[in-house]
Design a protein that fits this description.
The chain has about 475 residues and is α+β, with helices and mostly antiparallel strands. The chain folds into two domains: about 100 residues, Outer membrane efflux proteins (OEP); about 350 residues, Outer membrane efflux proteins (OEP), CATH 1.20.1600.10. Helix content is about 60%, strand content about 10%. The chain is built from ten helices and four strands. A four-stranded antiparallel sheet has the order 1-2-3-4, covered by helices on one side. It is elongated and about 135 Å long.
Length: about 475
């Protein structure tokens, strides 16, 4: 039984040789963006009580229970998120397949061989052991490994590392898809709310224009105004009528877009009646204005893991140029009788190391290494572009955040003044003080101001959602 330890010692010695790694040392690229997020008059100051927005769960960030319910439905039913989750499972399975190459595959086999040697026995005048009428029988049972590659240069380990990093990248891609989905559902839901407010304003304006048209028609019949005023009043009325129809179509399309994001029809009870001046999200500012916070974004981490995978692929490509060392070994028993397999002195073993080296491949190995290195350079650029994109998204969101409250305040004051002016103009027109043209202009201004304030409120709400997503919030 001394041969069995010899085989396993050989295997252990082979595995012990796997200490060389030809992959370049990974260094995270730096300097793609400034170290701090932009500051200045247009950007908000970091609040003293500011929070790490990325750590705020979406259930805490979104305040409306109907919106939270819609987001939860989307996380369960959205098909893009299901595809991303399936990609993670596939990447994990591929990693496990690659990881299995680090250890030898152990096979067991049993076979019987029957050979007819009667002619040879007759010519020699002798018989054959374990024969009957010139037929020999050999039985054998083995357990061992076949062509196990000894990872002397680190090729297998680097391929395993590349598969692991690809798995991590797929998981980060799933997280990025989840964050984007939450933000998109939130923005679509808020857009629907704003458009319903727009429709309410358009209908109110249509009624107001209808009353004005009826008044001018009555005045035209008694001869106090000309047909010009009647046509001008009808123009405003028809324009508002068109706005109502267009907004009804837009609201239906908003609902369709929301249903697609959620992955199923959203019940009316979960939809907003309007936006008004209600707060639908936390009004939070980031506490840390260091751009390093962007490195925690899932899409940036995905790009970094893919870069690390390319780094490992360089090591595998370098190792592929060097000799391949493999080992085939088996241990078992052999006997001329089936019953003799379990008896003593029937052991059989073999160890077969193999070394192969390509002499001429016409540049295949070096070209493959050059291709992998080029892929690694592309991965560096992709990572830096991901960081730059994250920086730009956060900077844009902060620029809007720094001025949006002032803009909404101005739009609110403008809408209030325009509404009062329209009422005064109507009263002055009825009293014969102002012209009909002044009344029409005041009504148009008031209508546009009301639409503008709804747009401003929507921009403020969606800006908070965008800033939340850009800083990597929404995982919990």
């Amino acid at each position: 039984m001394t041969s069995k330890p010899r085989i396993f010692v050989s295997l252990l010695l082979g595995v012990a040789l796997t200490g060389c790694n030809m992959a370049p040392r990974y260094v995270r690229p730096a300097g793609a963006v400034p170290t701090t997020l932009p500051e200045g008059t247009v950007y908000p100051d970091a609040a003293a009580e500011g929070q790490d927005i990325a750590r705020i769960g979406w259930r805490d960030f979104f305040l409306d229970p109907r919106l939270r319910e819609v987001i939860a439905l989307g996380l369960e039913n959205n098909r893009d998120l299901q595809v991303a989750a399936a990609n993670v499972l596939r990447a994990r399975a591929e990693y496990r397949v690659q990881r299995a190459d680090l250890l030898p595959t152990i096979d067991a086999s049993a076979r019987a061989t029957y050979a007819n040697s009667q002619g040879l026995a007759a010519r020699s005048g002798t018989g054959t052991g374990g024969t009957d009428g010139g037929t020999s029988e050999i039985y054998r049972a083995d357990i061992g490994v076949s062509a196990f590659e000894i990872d002397l240069w680190g090729k297998v380990r680097n391929l395993n590392e590349a598969a692991l990093q690809s798995y991590f990248a797929s998981d980060e891609a799933r997280k990025a898809t989840r964050i984007s989905l939450i933000a998109e559902i939130g923005s679509a839901w808020l857009t629907l709310a704003a458009d319903r407010d727009m429709l309410a304003v358009a209908r109110d304006t249509l009624e107001s224009y209808a009353r004005t048209r009826e008044l001018t028609e009555a005045q035209f019949r008694i001869g106090t105004v000309s047909e010009l005023e009647v046509r001008q009043a009808d123009t405003n009325y028809q324009s508002a009528r068109d706005d109502v129809a267009a907004l009804q179509t837009l609201i239906a399309q908003d609902k369709n877009a929301l249903d697609l994001l959620v992955g199923m029809p959203v019940a009316e009870e979960h939809l907003p009646a309007g936006m008004g001046d209600e707060a639908f999200t936390l009004d939070a500012l980031p506490a840390d204005m260091d751009s390093a916070v962007l490195l925690r974004r899932p899409d940036v981490l995905e790009a970094e893991h893919r870069l690390m995978a390319q780094n490992a692929n360089i090591g595998a490509a370098r190792a592929a140029i060097f000799p391949t060392i493999s080992l085939t070994a088996s241990f078992g028993t052999i006997s001329s009788a089936l019953s003799g397999l379990l008896k003593g002195n029937s052991e059989a073993w073999s160890v077969s190391p193999d070394v192969s080296q390509t002499i001429f491949d016409f540049g295949r190995g070096t070209s493959n290494l050059a291709a992998v290195k080029a892929g690694q350079k592309a991965a560096v650029a992709t990572y830096e572009k991901a960081v730059q994109t994250a920086f730009r998204e956060v900077a844009d969101a902060l620029a809007t955040r720094g001025t949006i409250d002032e803009r909404v305040s101005a739009l609110t004051a403008r809408a209030d003044s325009a509404d009062v002016a329209a009422k005064l103009s109507d009263a002055r027109y009825r009293a014969g003080i102002d012209s009909f043209l002044t009344l029409l202009d005041s009504q148009r201004t008031a209508y546009a101001a009301k639409r503008a304030i709804i747009t401003g409120r929507l921009n403020r709400a969606t800006n908070l959602v965008t800033l939340y997503r850009a800083l990597g919030g929404g995982l919990d």
